[in-house]
Amino acid sequence: MAACYPLPGEQSKCAPGELDLRYAAFWRPIEDRDDCAAFVAALPDLTRVARYERRAWSRRRRAFCEFLAIKLRCDEPERSEHLPGSVNRESDANTG
To answer: For the chain, what are the domain ranges?
Structure first.
């Protein structure tokens, strides 16, 4: 097909109408088929997309867990004094 598209200033090496024949061979019309046949033809692609989505979700989940682990390590000295569910004795003495 590249021979039909020469560089500027060069002559085309395609015979008249040859480009149309090449396009027709490349862009074959898809034959009519029912919904079931179209679904069966699409199954490999759908399986591939589903696998990609599972892998992307796993990477996202793993990155989020790593982020939380890093965040907890950075906040550890502050959080050890004020853990959820623990009682802060100084604030109880001041309020009462």
So the answer is: 31-80
Beta-carbon contacts of 5 under 8 Å, excluding residues fewer than 6 positions away, are 12
Distance between CA 31 and CA 29 in Å, rounded?
6
As a dihedral over the C-alpha atoms of residue 43, residue 49, residue 55, residue 57, rounded to 10 degrees, the angle is: -120
Per-residue pLDDT at 24: 74
What token pair was written down for 35?
């919904």
| Geometric angle at alpha carbon 74, from 72 and 75, rounded to 5° | 65
List C-alpha distances in Å: 77 to 46, 68, 71, 83, 86: 48, 15, 12, 11, 15
Burial-class residue 14 by CB neighbours within 10 Å (0-12, 13-18, 19+).
Answer: middle
**Residue showing tokens 């004020």:** 82
Predicted TM-score of the model (pTM): 0.41
Of residues 40 and 83, more confidence is placed in: 40
